[in-house]
Protein 1
Amino acid sequence: MSNEQSIADAETPREHSQGSSASRSGFAEETSIDISGLELTYGDGTEAVSGVDLTVGDGEFFGFLGPNGAGKTTVIKVLATLLSPTAGEVRVNGFDVRTEPRKIRESIGYMAQETSIDPELTAEENIRFACEAYGVPRGDRDERTAELLDLVDLEAVADKRSEEFSGGMKKRLDAATALVHRPPLVFLDEPTTGLDPTARNRLWEYFQRINEQGTTIFLTTQYLEEADTLCERLAVILDGGIVADGSPADLKQEVGGDVLDIELGDGPEARARAATIAREFDDFDAATVEETETGISVTAKAARQSGTDLLVALRDAGLIVTGFNVRAPTLDDVFLAITGERVDTDDGAAIMEESP
Amino acid sequence: MSTPTESGTTDREVARSANTFTGDVWVNFKRWSLKAVRNPFVLVVSLAQPFIFLVLFTEVFGNVAGGAVSEGLGPGVDYTTFLVPAIAIQVALASAVTSGIGLVNDIENGMFEKVLVSPMNRTAVFIGKTLAEVFRIALQIAIILGLGVLLGAEITTGVVGAVGIMAVGILFSFWFIAFSNMLAVLTRDQESTIIGANLLQFPLLFLSSAFLPLEVLPNWIQLFARINPVTYGVDAARAIMLDEDVMTVIEVTAFDGALDTIVPAVAVLAGLGLVFGAGAVYLLSRASSSDVR
């Protein structure tokens, strides 16, 4: 693309947003994030993101999932104006990332994957510095600092240097500093990685609380349980592109029914035979059958209704069933179905054949 | 999903931050000054070490070196008076190293990125940080001058001279502050920055006019001293201290007395500061830009 072209592209949206600044609030109620055709290629030629389209509505609790290296952090860094997109149009809170980065910085909170606090400053000083960095009016700073210390439960250690804090306390402090200016949109890049369950639960409550107050949250996580508990909507990124988008319930539905786990008494041979029987089983339309460590796992719409029939068929074939369990699919199954499909080409081909 | 009310949206518009350039400078100046007070490393390395040098050198070498000083600068200059300007420059050098270390720490603990996503003006951020370091250097030189006077040194030009020496120290520190920041951005590693900057410190100090007059030193040191910034810093500070033309590396006679040293030395230091400063600004703006690399 020529330089002139890119400048022309950049100018148009800026004029648009200035012209419509009065009506911006109306626009922002619709979308906090608007990405179309985002591409990002690193200097060494690595295509981290290729052709991402994504919209996140105002007030949504949005989860962004994907295996390590899929491009989650790259997308979040583009949205937080830390990386410039190679191609595509990206708007955050109605502002263009290329031409209005400072307006975006003023209107977002960003919590990086690595805990980012100044260890030489106390908890209170860290929050106060953030207040000043984000231009919180002088008169509001005391109140805002006290309020945030209370919100993340750090009042007791307000005057202690943060280098002495535990991992969970540091994360909470980091989260507090991202919220000093009451941003309408907050980015949380794996906020609970490496925390113990208690600390994680506390952060969850806290994120839910600010979301209830109207803050849009864009969260990436490795914990599917976390996404399931918190998020209203999820998108899954794989190899730099979005491969699934919807509410946790929608995505689970897409897995193709309930999951029937069957444990078998015999070795791998029995498992292979059982898998064949399950695949050919008439009642299961478009079933996905997988061999597991201890037996087989069948995903099918009729798994609940016709599961016992399959167990009978297995017994008739002379296989010993030592245990079974029917359950609704978890996000783990969703994730496996989506990401496994392309990562393992062999299995993927099999799944593709059976689920048109 | 929660739907923000009309008034809620208006609140957001009002709550939008309004940073000013000077405000951003002040915020960063405060943060780095606070960190300097908190960090024992900064105080010990940049103040205690030069102080120990001052006491040890005057006590151990004072009698012996006194002869050499008389040989170089004529009789009547006592070694403590000769040494104090050099220690002032040493303070500037040692303190300037901590600038790069601070930047590397910021990169390592995520504060660098945190500052980049904030709406603060990036130039103001670095100006604030550098001002904090320069302010500290001025204070430290003042302390060293005070101690020097207590130990028997004499500042011929009085209080004005003391302020002048602080100004020379600040001007001198710019190239090394820039240099340590360049090391920080290039290595992004605390140890490499400390080692890189500290390894240079002692050769630079000893291969200059800092501890003995150049006349009594071997030829190769005299040659190196010509291209050593420390020589220019020390000579300028010493010229103010003694109110004499003490420079031997460049002979200027266009002015009068001490100015024959001060003017060329200040010109050299300003030039160095600009060259290294430009390099540091280039590397820092590259490190903080959002361009994909």
Protein 2
Amino acid sequence: MIEVSSLCKSYGAAPVLHDVSLSLPRGGVTSLIGPNGAGKSTLLSLIARLIVPDSGSVTVDGLDVTRTPGPVLARRLAILRQENHLVARLTVRELVGFGRFPHSGGRLTAEDRAAIDRALDYLELAPLADRFIDQLSGGQRQRAFVAMVLAQDTDYLLLDEPLNNLDMKHAQAMMRLLASAAHDLGKTVIVVLHDINFASCHSDRIVAMRQGRIFAAGTPAEIVTPDLLGELYEMQIAVREIDGQRIALFYG
Amino acid sequence: MPHERRARLALLVLALLALSAILAFMTLGARGNWGFVLPFRGKKLLGLLLVGHAVACSTVLFQTVTANRILTPAIMGFDSLFVLCSTVLMALFGSTMVAGLDPRLVFAGNVLLMVGASMALYLWLFGGEERSLHRLLLIGVVFGIFLRMLAEFVQRMLDPNEFMVLSDMLFASFGTIPATLLGIASAMVAGVTLWLMPRLSRLDVIALGRPVAVNLGIRWRAEVLAVLAAVSVLVAVSAALVGPVLFFGLIAASLAHLAVGQSAHRYLLPAASLIGVTMLVGGQTVLERVFAFNTALGIIVEFAGGITFIALLIGKGRR
Amino acid sequence: MTRLAAAVLVTAGLALASLFVGVSNVSLRGILAGQELDWLVLVESRLPRMLALLLSGASMAIAGLLTQIVIRNRFVEPANTGTMESAGLGLLVMTLVAPGAPVIAKMAAGAGFAMAGTALFLAILRRVPLRDPMLVPLVGILLSGVIYAGTAFVAYRFDLIQTVLAWTQGDLSGVLRGRYELLWLGATLAAVAWLAADRFTVAGLGRDIASSLGLAHGRVVALGLTIVSLVTAVVVVTVGMIPFLGLIVPNIVSLALGDNMRRAVPWVAVSGAALVLACDILGRVIRAPYEVPLGTVLGVLGSAVFLVLILRSRDRAA
């Protein structure tokens, strides 16, 4: 359970989050959607203690993220930001291996190696395992980073726009993988998504944000409606039900 | 894994190179009494070894905590900071007192001051908003000039006698390494190196950059500041022994990356250190024994380093 | 106009003060009473020094402005485009090749090297695909360092380090009558830049706009950099390198006045002269009877102001 209470954050004079409170139960996939600048990524970074709030607090299973020792939290919660510039020259296997650092402290055990192999297989990276990251395509690199946080084997998985750089096939595979991680492995997955139809089809919950506040939260059926999305994005959006999935239309 | 084998091979070759440079330095052109030559050259060698190791390691560490391949402590003004610290210490306490003290004690005080000041500098440069690389570099370079100018200004404000005492301490060069400091410098470098040993894998995590490292449970600020303290000690040692060298670390670190072809610190740090030692000892041997120059090594290093740096900047823009 | 007049007045006051500050006591009363010693110091030392300050300050500041307009970057000046260090190298080479050559010949050699150094800098800039405004001065500072290291190496080989140090550091304590007059030439060149100001302003809009306005862009840029090289060589050979002056003065003036060169030039000239005079007076009184060289005072002040300018400017590339 993640509890966010009265969180405020501003960069310089510009406020990014106003008094955000939210509680996310365990399990399932939660998507954060909303227009640019809504504060989605900031909220995600605050939950994962990558940035420090101006006021308010975040707890994960009752642990205050700013006070809990780093390694303790790193075994419980993993985050992947959208841009991962890597200066270090590493192979895919080495990068994924870093996911085990909170568990092993740098010395890999047999158990760690098994977890690394599982993560590589899960993301179909086994054939690329000994390639250097800088030799991969953008999509492959993105999957390698996801494999790293998966190898971290945490209850909570936070991903900021994980579909960036992925083509349709891999984007779909990624969302299915996240859903199965949530439903089969019992993880709690929170993703920032720009594509509201992926959010609609693969989430258990959607949290919509706008101008640094929570705009609405609920099931896809509650959120993916013409009125709500129209107000959220300030544009006309139609919603059709196709094969039992709610699809937003906004291309015309 | 093939690339691990390659890295180990590279280390072996570098070790052989360093060893032959050391052998050449100790033996080439030696005439007469070995009982005199060996201790005399040995002291010089020790100084060069310390500087090569300290500059190379401090550069690699600094690049690790700044997730960067171009920034070095010298370029960001840390060497100038040491000069300023020494000058300020002298200005505050006066030469009579400083000259009366054990130079090792003065040095230790300098290092302490330096560690504090460099942490403040780091927090100012990297603690706030994120800046673009070029802006950061320009700020660092200009700030380095500012520190140097300020040190020069304070030196001019000193009594000419005090200035003499100070200049003995400050204008050390590759030709005139102060022998009194070798003991304490060795102890400091050895201490830092031993402290680093068990931290190598944590350094690998830090090199992934702040977001990923924090995600993996690194206590970023504390870890980085500790590494930075180590960097400051190493910078202080090299600046005290041979004076500021702006670009040497950059060359050593860049070559080390090329040589081992990967980023694990257990390969990178020894490689950089060996390259640094080879360059300094080999360079000094060639200059002293072949060309009969004495103090020009620093100038040549600056010349080559400046060109390397411009090439790196241009190359980086290209990609 | 009245504000400019006030600035000129302040500068004149500083110039007057400059005449009466120093180790040997020159008093107004002594001058008026026709005391021989006072007159001697005034004419042989103080007056030349004051004029050298005025002329070098004004022309260096204009050279800085011109460099910024022609290279189209706020943060450049002769000291960080390879110009000033190359001029020093030229002087050294001349000293080695023809030790007895007159000052004007040394100056010419320095100017030639300065032009070559600037051209090298521009050639490097052309190879930098992404012209981040921060990268331009950075490359320039590094290049200047490399050229200086080369100079120092040559000087070291031929035991001329002391000679090089004299050029490196802006120091006016050695300026006497007969040793500064070349600076008039520098000031004249700076005045030429003023006359051609409109062209440079147009050239400063960039090659495309300048060409469509019918300006021979390449030729104007070459003319500008030639003037800069000559002025720099003159200043280096007479008073030594004065860093940061050409950088900070035009920037401060442009903050107040905008970027029209014709309007800015008189302000830049007057402020440059005033700043140099003030720094020199400070250097003379702060540690009397010793002198802190102008280059050092200006170095501290200039690098600090430069730093503030960088920190203030918006990060476009972020």
